[in-house]
Amino acid sequence: MDKKKLQKSRMWKYFVEAATEIIEEEGARAVTIRKVADRAGYNSATIYNYFDEFSHLLFFASMRLMKEYTVEVTRRMNDKTCALDQYMTAWECFCEYSFQQPDIFHSVFIRDLGDNPDHLLEKYYEFYPSDLVDVPEEIRMSLLEQNVVKRGNPILKRAVEQGSLDLEKIESLNEVTILIWQGMLMNFLNNRIDATPEEAASRTMFYVKEIIDRLKS
Fold it and tell me: Which positions, given as ranges, span the membrane (predicted)?
């Protein structure tokens, strides 16, 4: 890496790490451009030399706090051989962690990422490649998919190959399960449901399992 790219990489990480520290100390909703700039030791305008949108900075900082989830979902899915079981297991882990850290998961999977949301995950893992160490290729494909509606597709395509799911049902299964989770998470974040994180995760998984059972072969 040449000096210019190395300097840019360092600056990029300064801001991401500053935002990550604020999230850890005060929560994701407390992050502002001014706070990040002050903590990193630069003025606010400098940040926009490295991030097209504030939401991108928040996305990358939130990803720094998802390492435990990515490690755990990989571990659990590796214990399954049936693709549909892997899909169910992935959802169980996703619900468990997302309702424990709703603002983090909202920043990564729901928040408006502006006009240029593509390839953000690839860029993140380019700067933090160690976060993907030992992740199997099939799971890696799901983790690298920016569009949350498509994240389960590699696993569901294998479920079709194994005969546990019809090809024409992939899109419906993937989309409906995502919509269930998004609705529950938004209600949870906005205090529209009276539930603990564990209860919200359990209720979401009840509906996800219902959909999977109805659509599987």
Answer: none
**β-bridge partners, 153:** none
CB 177 within 8 A of CB 92: no
Q: Are residues 73 and 152 in the same domain?
A: yes
Q: How far apart (Å, rounded) are the C-alpha atoms in residues 44 and 41?
A: 10
Digit-coded pLDDT (tens) for 135-185: 777 677 666 666 666 677 788 999 999 999 999 999 899 889 999 999 999
CB crowding 95-106: b at 16 or more within 10 Å, else e: bbbbbebbbbbb
Residue with structure tokens 């989309």? 175
**Total-model pTM:** 0.90
What does residue 165 show for φ and ψ, rounded to 5 degrees? Answer: -150, 140
The boundaries of the domain holding residue 159 are: 65-215
